Amino acid sequence: MERVFSEGERADAGRRRDPTEGLAARFAAKEAVMKALGVGLGRFALREVEVARAPSGAPSLRLSGGAAAVAAEQGVAEWRLSLSHTSQVAQAVAVALPATPSAPC
User: Fold this and answer.
1) What does the alpha-carbon distance between residue 79 and residue 36 come to, in Å, rounded to a whole number?
2) Which of 30, 38, 90, 99 reaches 20 to 30 Å from 20, CA-CA?
């Protein structure tokens, strides 16, 4: 848990009766960020991609360390994130947006 999820992610999951569905969706988000950046597992620590929640409940991403460095190298300025889960399946879509419309991502 500590190797994969930030303290905030673990705390948020701990408020739920069954934290596994939310944690699975967060893991899917971390993997979706890696795919959006075109890198595989191991390029940076999974904890460097953190799923946060706005007061409205909307998910967002915070990147740090190596993940933030790779995103900056590729010109990523913003992220859009969608999470979905059931008791059987978790999925996430992460979209990397450039700083300017002409910048590659």
Assistant:
1) 10
2) 38
Give residue 33's region: left, alpha or beta (phi > 0; psi -120 to 50). Answer: alpha
| Token pair for 77 | 């300025």
Q: How far apart are CA 86 and CA 79, in angstroms?
A: 24
Helix axes 7-14, 20-37, angle to 10 degrees: 150
pTM here is 0.89
The answer to whether residues 52 and 83 touch, using CB atoms and an 8 Å cutoff, is no
- Alpha carbon 33 to its chain centroid, in Å, reads 6
User: What digits encode the pLDDT tens for the residues 8-61?
Assistant: 999 988 888 888 998 999 999 999 999 999 998 889 999 999 999 888 989 999
- Of the CA atoms within 13 Å of residue 6, those in its CB half-sphere come to 15
Out of 3.30.1330.10, 1.50.10.10, 3.40.605.10, 3.90.470.20, the CATH code matching 7-98 is: 3.90.470.20
